[in-house]
Amino acid sequence: MNNPDRISQFLAAVEELRGDDPAIRTTAHTSSVSAEGWPAAETQTDAEADG
Amino acid sequence: MNEPTAVFALAPIQRLQRSRARQIHTLLQPDAAQSGTARVGGQAGLEYAVAHHLLEGAEVAARAYDQDTFAWYTRTSAAGPTGLHTPTTVGLRIILAPDLIDLSRSKISETPYVLISPATTSAPQELCELAASAFSVAAEAGFGTLLAGHAAIVVVLRRKQLGDTLDSWTITRLPGTVFADHVDEPAVLARDLVHEAGHNWLNDGLAACGVKISDEMRFFSPWKRTIRSAFGFLHACWAFPLTMIFTARVLDELSDPVRAFMTAYLVQQRDLLAATDGDHARALALLPDDDLRQRLHHVHQTARDL
Question: Minimal CA–CA distance to B141: which of B178, B94, B193?
């Protein structure tokens, strides 16, 4: 059984683990190829946030 | 010769994955004895991906003081619940197909996502078989090493029709996990797994080699048709060429209408990639790691030569 100390210790350790690289990036890709001229509609994003 | 394999085998990435998985495992199970076995290939990739799910899930449970769920995360094995495993040519994979309404949104991602939890079940059999077939197609084309290490958990999103817009994505907090629509065609899903695993590979490669890319210079991306950071531009100039190389390698094995679809995709990508030549060389110059730079250049050039 976990106790509050165990959870607090875990959360502190998580902060420490992530401490050296807090950046969050997302790569999202949308592709579309149609039969009518095969237009491109590609998007790709990257974002950074605290975390 | 399945030449792409050599591009993806990068020792610092393998060390990073083992080290990171071990760190997370120690954090979750501080009293457990560490296995001295050096995981390799698909198993290492699976444990790396699962570790990040367990870490995120345990953190959510811990912040909610949900002790039962937290306890589940701290006792789940490194490769995840065995009931979730699907055997494939690149090793055990976890294939999920959650209801879209159950996808989470939080500050860890701009896109929706799902974490392995006590309630998680495997995707239906037909989707597991589709994914397994996609892994086989990709491996046969020389992308087995890439997918073994960087597409261990596949979250199948929506069933689309050939020609529909397909969405797929990855997030850095869940390396080794790929979210993707599908059209019930292994080769098309394999193409998108290659693309997203490519993003995961590059994120790991940059981290493993300690590379930070300066965002001072920006470049026009023909895919997004906008000016992008060097990070985003280099990602696109890596992931799209990988899908071109994959597509060129599998075309002869395909039948219409998938063959016509993939042929059109390759034609489309050739034109887009051609617009990146000068900028790609300038963006690569921002990469201080010779090995990484050479690999990115090689893939870009190989796709340009198609």
Answer: B193
